[in-house]
Amino acid sequence: MTPFELVEPATLGEALALLDPDDPDVRPIAGGTALILMMKSGLYRPRRLVSLRALGPAISSVAETPEGGLEIGAMVRLSEIERSGVVGRTVPVITDTLLTHSNVRVRNVATIGGNLAHADPHMDLPPVLIALGASVGALRPGGERTIPVEDLFSGYMATVLANNELIMSLQIPPPAGRRSAYAKVTTRSADDWPALGIAVSVGIVEGMVGNARIAIGAATETAMRLPGTEALLAGRRINAALLHEVGKAAASEAPVVSDLQGSASYKRVLVEVHLRRALQQALAA
């Protein structure tokens, strides 16, 4: 690991001032579970790390909104979200997902803001949050903006965030009777990278799908929605024939890639099978 400067600002203003919009070698660090590994392996050699640890109290709460949604501070650790009663009541799919996300040692350190800013397509939460219609609040010197999670990722391990922009919070809209589920395929190997993560959230009106959101990760270069497959579900009653149809459509629509977890053709089969299972799981909830 090469030498670097570590600074720990006490306020958000100080943190933003220490970041450099034109220097990618200056980075914020939250939990550091992924960043430190990248530094140890030599993949990233920062000149300066801006620790957000002292900012924790200002952005580390989990609260229900007046409308029935959730607002989660960027410095909330994943294990806190996993154990949160209000999260479990409002969006139990997040609680269920975190039970098999990495391991408990990582979840005790990793933060939700860092998890999203890291933009690793193998992470479990991005497709879940996309399916739920979640957004992040991001702060930069010019002010704050809201970014839908589905628009946050610009490519492989890349986001639309500027170098001097910080995620402040995660906002999850009220579930409004929607049913959600997440399916993951992993070999449970030493690195535990999934070959597929697929999330669904559906609204059912008189037995028909009123609207649907489907998001995929791990099998693709970045977490994303599958709007063409979503459109096939709208206004239709879920049955075996429809599940077969949407599974085939998703396998065709998703731009899956080959990697160490499997070939593209293998992953297309996974998409087809596990989308059906995720929809069945959501409807049974």
Provide the descriptors you would attach to this structure in a database record.
285 residues; alpha+beta; Uridine Diphospho-n-acetylenolpyruvylglucosamine Reductase, domain 2; Uridine Diphospho-n-acetylenolpyruvylglucosamine Reductase, domain 3; Enolase-like, domain 1; 5-stranded antiparallel sheet; 4-stranded antiparallel sheet; 34% helix; globular
Can you characterise this structure?
- The protein is an alpha+beta fold and 285 residues long.
- The chain has three domains: 5-50, 2-Layer Sandwich (Uridine Diphospho-n-acetylenolpyruvylglucosamine Reductase, domain 2), CATH 3.30.43; 58-172, Uridine Diphospho-n-acetylenolpyruvylglucosamine Reductase, domain 3 (2-Layer Sandwich), CATH 3.30.465.10; 182-284, CO dehydrogenase flavoprotein, C-terminal domain (Enolase-like, domain 1).
- It is 34% helix and 25% strand.
- The chain has helices at residues 12-18, 35-40, 78-83, 85-90, 92-98, 104-107, 112-118, 125-131, 149-152, 227-233, 240-253, 264-284; strands at residues 5-7, 26-29, 48-51, 62-64, 70-73, 135-140, 143-148, 153-155, 158-159, 166-172, 179-185, 196-205, 208-217, 224-225.
- Strands 4-5-10-6-7 form a five-stranded antiparallel beta sheet. The chain has a four-stranded antiparallel beta sheet with strand order 11-12-13-14.
- Strand 8 and strand 9 form a beta hairpin.
- Helix 11 runs antiparallel to helix 12.
- The longest helix has 21 residues, at 264-284.
- The radius of gyration is 19 Å and the shape is globular.
- The model has no long low-confidence stretch (mean pLDDT 94).
